[in-house]
Write a structure and sequence with these properties.
It is globular, with a radius of gyration of 17 Å. The chain has 300 residues and is an alpha/beta fold. The chain is 37% helix and 25% strand. α1 packs across α8 and α8 runs antiparallel to α9. The longest helix has 19 residues.
């Protein structure tokens, strides 16, 4: 049973107080793939990397953690970068230097879930191929989507909203942060947006509130869980860790592999708490460093 994650892998250049702290493998979809692999799932990443030292760094990091790269991943363009500037609370804002395209490929046999999100779903020319792959996955696997909006790259909310809503309608599972929803729908309650999105087709829509927990909406449940306490180092990759642990928990519960069956209030609470623990661990250490399954069990 394979998870296929589709989207950008890049180098995070981390800057604090005006000085570069270091360069680390990153990219929201790559972080989700890393999190799934660390939680024990067979995971393939469909992405692109340059044939350069930064591409070697990303590929080596992912391979060391059990993530397979799809064929045709490396090309002659430079590996993309995201410069993350951390404020005094450890929160990151990003600027990007990007190349995004995808090779022709087929999805693997035994696919249980296809996840995509962030820059990969809107940045040309690769965004069209991402959509094609999700549409190809939908008849036989669960589709997951995280918009992870990038206002500096997407233009206006009015321009971005139709594309985001179209992918929400294709997905079975959607996670969005309050920052995403505040930008896409200024002045609207994030939970009201989640309820409206669930009406577009997903079985589960989750809104994450950072240190204030998460709210999930299904056909049978509509509830909030508090955040798991954590000693904050930074928030880099926390949302991605939440997403990977949410999907992992759904897999463990037998909820993936096609259309998602009904999710009760009790099951939803357990899923959100499980994902929140993963995010808390990630916030307690620098960079996008999601937990292993053993670390999550130990936190219990």
């Amino acid at each position: 049973m394979t998870f296929t994650v589709i989207g950008e892998a890049l180098i995070d250049v981390v800057v604090r107080d005006g000085a570069t702290v270091g360069e680390y493998p990153g990219g929201s979809p790559a972080n989700v793939a890393l999190g799934l692999a660390r939680l024990g799932h067979d995971t393939e990443l469909v992405t692109r990397l340059g044939r350069d030292a930064r591409g070697d760094l990303v590929e080596g990091h992912l391979a060391a953690n059990g993530v397979r790269l799809a064929s045709g991943t490396r090309d002659d363009a430079p590996t993309s970068t995201a410069t993350a500037r951390l404020d005094h609370d450890g929160a990151a804002t990003y600027t990007f230097e990007l190349v995004w395209d995808l090779p022709e490929l087929r999805l693997p046999d035994g696919l249980v879930c296809a996840h995509a999100g962030s820059i990969a779903t809107f940045y040309p020319p690769g965004a069209a191929r991402v959509r094609d792959l999700l549409e190809a996955a939908a008849p036989r696997a669960t589709v997951s989507f995280d918009p992870n909006c990038r206002p500096d790259l997407q233009g206006s909310p009015d321009a971005a909203r139709p594309q985001v809503e179209s992918l929400v309608g294709l997905a079975d599972v959607v996670r969005a942060s309050t920052d995403d929803l505040a930008w896409l729908y200024p002045g609207r309650d994030p939970v009201d947006v989640a309820r409206a999105w669930r009406g577009l087709g997903p079985a589960l829509v989750v809104v994450t509130y950072g240190g204030d927990g998460a709210h999930g909406v299904t056909a049978d449940a509509d509830l909030r869980v508090p955040a798991v306490p954590s000693t904050l180092v930074d928030t880099v990759g926390a949302g991605d860790s939440f997403t990977s642990a949410l999907l992992s928990g759904m897999s463990d519960a037998g909820l993936l592999g096609g259309r998602v069956p009904p999710i009760s209030a009790g099951t939803l609470t357990a899923l959100l708490e499980h994902a929140g623990r993963a995010a808390a661990i990630t916030c307690s250490r620098p960079g996008a460093d999601p937990p292993t399954r053993e670390e999550l069990v130990a936190l219990l």
